Recover the amino acids of this structure.
């Protein structure tokens, strides 16, 4: 029974002393107070209260410090080698497939190749992200474009690859016209102007260049006292024109919009799923 009581006192003693040390209390002050409260635990000696068995206070203090250090280490900033890479630190490979894999692993690298600051401001940092992707060789030059898609923003960022990633554009894409090497947009994803429903535009992809190539719109303003208004952008002249009838509008629609493959026909892959790098659609 005495042995069991002694072990129980010993355990209680260690726990209390450790708690005192962690709270910043001095060991000597703790022992004096504990001796007054529990003489059986701390018998008296000529030099004052002592532990029934000598307790190495420095070991307990060191153990307490090691616990604190472990806690700090768990919440410390990762070492440089553990942080996401910056684009400047990357030696980009010759293979577009390997390069796209790097971007999928850390999509934020795209910010070094294009200005996406408006998106984080418009949608908020918590919603600004790209979480899906697919590949499509829009201009059929042998290097497929990487299309990063955001489920929340409903926007697609288009990249190609030379000896490094090349940002081409981002927008709310309607589809891809493989006959004209264009991505086609219906309406506008923010702001005002245009009819929206009958408003179409396109950008042509040629190698590492994206060029605004087509715009048409149809607005019937007769209910508001206006008239029917057509708008057509002529890529050859770079001029917006307003023809009297819809012949040019219909011709542009037939050549640029109708052949499109709508975006919903493409298979989207999660950024963590690298099988999409084997599937050029």
């Amino acid at each position: 029974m005495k042995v069991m009581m002694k072990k129980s006192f010993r355990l209680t003693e260690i726990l209390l002393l450790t708690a005192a040390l962690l709270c910043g209390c001095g060991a000597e002050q703790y022992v004096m107070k504990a001796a007054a409260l529990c003489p059986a635990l701390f018998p008296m000696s000529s030099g004052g209260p002592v532990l029934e068995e000598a307790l190495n206070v420095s070991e307990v203090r060191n153990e307490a410090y090691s616990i604190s250090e472990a806690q700090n280490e768990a919440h410390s900033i990762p070492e440089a080698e553990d942080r996401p890479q910056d684009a400047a630190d990357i030696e980009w490979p010759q293979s577009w497939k390997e390069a796209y894999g790097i971007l999928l692993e850390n999509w934020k690298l795209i910010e070094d190749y294009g200005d996406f600051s408006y998106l984080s401001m418009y949608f908020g940092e918590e919603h600004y992200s790209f979480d899906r992707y697919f590949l499509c060789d829009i201009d059929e030059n042998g290097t497929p474009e990487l299309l990063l898609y955001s489920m929340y923003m409903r926007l697609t960022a288009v990249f190609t690859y030379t000896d490094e990633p090349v940002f081409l554009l981002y927008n709310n894409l309607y589809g891809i016209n493989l006959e004209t090497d264009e991505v086609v947009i219906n309406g506008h994803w923010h702001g005002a102007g245009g009819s929206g429903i009958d408003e179409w535009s396109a950008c042509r992809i040629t190698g590492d260049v994206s060029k605004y190539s087509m715009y048409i719109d149809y607005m019937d303003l007769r209910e508001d006292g206006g008239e029917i208004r057509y708008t057509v952008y002529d890529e050859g002249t770079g001029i917006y024109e307003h023809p009297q009838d819809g012949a040019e509008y219909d011709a542009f629609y037939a050549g640029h919009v109708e052949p499109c493959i709508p975006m919903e026909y493409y298979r989207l892959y999660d950024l963590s799923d690298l099988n999409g790098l084997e599937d050029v659609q």
Remarks:
- The two ends are 80 Å apart (CA to CA).
